[in-house]
Amino acid sequence: MSKQSKTNWDRVDALRDEDIDYSDNPKLTSDFFAKAARWPGNKELISLRLDPDVLAFFREQGRGYQTVINTLLRRYMEAQKQRISATKRRDLRKRR
């Protein structure tokens, strides 16, 4: 059973865009977007074997530890793709 929302949705629905105070929101700079992660869509359920101390470390970080592991793996994957791409470009230039 889900918790009952305490939000007054009628009041929210009645707000006009110009009535919303955005002053405490941080400015979205190009640096923000450079570090932003795209939502990858659906996840695939797998079984993954991790060393006990590695798993314990991430679990100690609290709720969302699986998302953190996924994010770290994604960043590693993207870095490796960039490295491989740079190596291929370098090799192509050498062949010319």
Layout of strands and helices, then pairs:
Blueprint: H1 9-14, H2 30-35, H3 52-60, H4 65-95
What key attributes describe this structure?
single chain; 96 residues; 54% helix; flat
What does this structure look like?
The chain has helices spanning 9-14, 30-35, 52-60, 65-95. The model has no long low-confidence stretch (mean pLDDT 89). It is built from four helices and no strands. The longest helix has 31 residues, at 65-95. The protein is mostly helical. It has a domain at 50-96. It is flat, with a radius of gyration of 22 Å.
Shape: flat
Order of helices and strands: HHHH
Structural class: mainly alpha
Average pLDDT rating: 89
Largest sheet: none
Spans of at least 5 consecutive residues with low confidence: none
Instruction: Give the end-to-end Cα distance, rounded to a whole number of Å.
Output: 66 Å
Radius of gyration from the alpha-carbon trace, in angstroms: 22 Å
* Quaternary: single chain
Helix content: 40-55%
Number of strands: 0
Percent in strands: under 5%
Count of helices?
4
TL;DR?
The protein is mainly α. Helices cover 54% and strands 0% of the residues.
